[in-house]
Amino acid sequence: MRSVSRGSSVAKAVGLVLLAAAVLSFPILAPNPYILSAGIVVLNYAVLSTSWNFVGGFTGYISLGHGALAGLGGYGTALLVTEAGLPSFVALAVAALAVAALAVPIGLAALRVRGASFVIVSIALVLILLLVFQSWASVTGGSRGLVVPRPFPDLRRPEHHRVFFYLFAALLALALLAWWLIDRSRFGLGLKAIREDEDKAEALGTPTFAYKLIVFVVSAGFTALAGGLYALWFGDLDPVFQFSILTGSYLVLMALLGGVRNLFGPLAGALIVGTALEYFKGQFGNTPLHLVATGVLLGLVVMFMPDGVLPAITGLWQRLRKSPQSSIREVSAADLQTERQRAEVAK
């Protein structure tokens, strides 16, 4: 058993190194700036879906409103740069902290309900913020949008993409590390107890509401960081895009597709869905056909891998490498007869 565990640890370490190498080498291997920019979009989705998984994966609460938190992070960063004159990355950090602080009263109100009611509340948050940011044109630019100054004005577009690819990769690594630490902590154990049976967890003394609020604030902070970094990279914000229900839906689908109980599940889902979205957009343009094609792909995967891609692959790998002997030692009829004879002689 010890050798099997050691082999599993080595395999995980090798896989992690290969994943890191693939991510870090992508900007060098990308054939053109468009492919590199598509890679940034996929990485942004990976950060957002991992951030969503702090709530969805640990507590089981399905939020469609995380797109609104990303939009707040984007607009907060942009306004701090354009109106307050803060340096770009100082504005990013301040905006993320502000969104995390704002998540406290939002969580106090939203986390008192469960199930479908929580989903409806999260949708209402997106719609309310969309109306506010569209109507408050004197500050947000309204439907005209808001232009964000580039943090590296001297860089050409390809170099600009390359720098932000590594920044998104670093943010993803930080989010994964935070999720991993929580997963192995007593706090994470309490969150998973909420996911399995919230009433029973509360009856056993777990401060369920406080746990949910804390992880919601952590999730909001990472989501705002992703939204703000996207604003600095893309340079142009539109309320319709930043506060879209589709964004929250994508995050849920990515996390569920990859496997919400797995550290790298949202990342796997983002690679599949994000790549599919970019490919189908290239094939079908801005028509709704790219949504249809992506929906069919998701439907096929969900039908054949209901627990997510990574759990399905892990289960298949375990079945393939399973020893022909079970954990209870199997013996032949001749071995069994020999054991009986030894037992009779011993008597």
What are the salient characteristics of this protein?
347 residues, mainly alpha
Largest sheet: 2 strands, antiparallel
Order of helices and strands: HHHHHHEHHHHEHHHHHH
Alpha carbon gap, first and last residue:
34 Å
How many strands in all? 2
Content-based structural category: mainly alpha
Indicate the low-confidence ranges by residue numbers: 323-331
Biggest sheet, spatial arrangement of strands: 1-2
Radius of gyration: 24 Å
Mean pLDDT: 87
Proportion of residues in β-strands? under 5%
| Shape estimate | globular
Report the helical percentage.
Answer: over 70%
Number of helices: 16
Word description of this protein:
The chain is mainly alpha-helical. Helices cover 78% and strands 1% of the residues. It has helices at 2-29, 33-59, 66-82, 88-110, 115-135, 137-140, 157-183, 186-196, 198-203, 208-234, 239-242, 245-258, 265-284, 289-304, 309-320, 333-346; strands spanning 146-147, 236-237. The chain has a two-stranded antiparallel ribbon. It is globular. 39% of the residues are buried.
SSE layout and pairing:
Elements: H1 2-29, H2 33-59, H3 66-82, H4 88-110, H5 115-135, H6 137-140, E1 146-147, H7 157-183, H8 186-196, H9 198-203, H10 208-234, E2 236-237, H11 239-242, H12 245-258, H13 265-284, H14 289-304, H15 309-320, H16 333-346
Antiparallel strand pairs: 1-2
Q: In a few lines, what is going on in this structure?
A:
By secondary structure, the protein is mainly α. The chain is built from 16 helices and 2 strands.
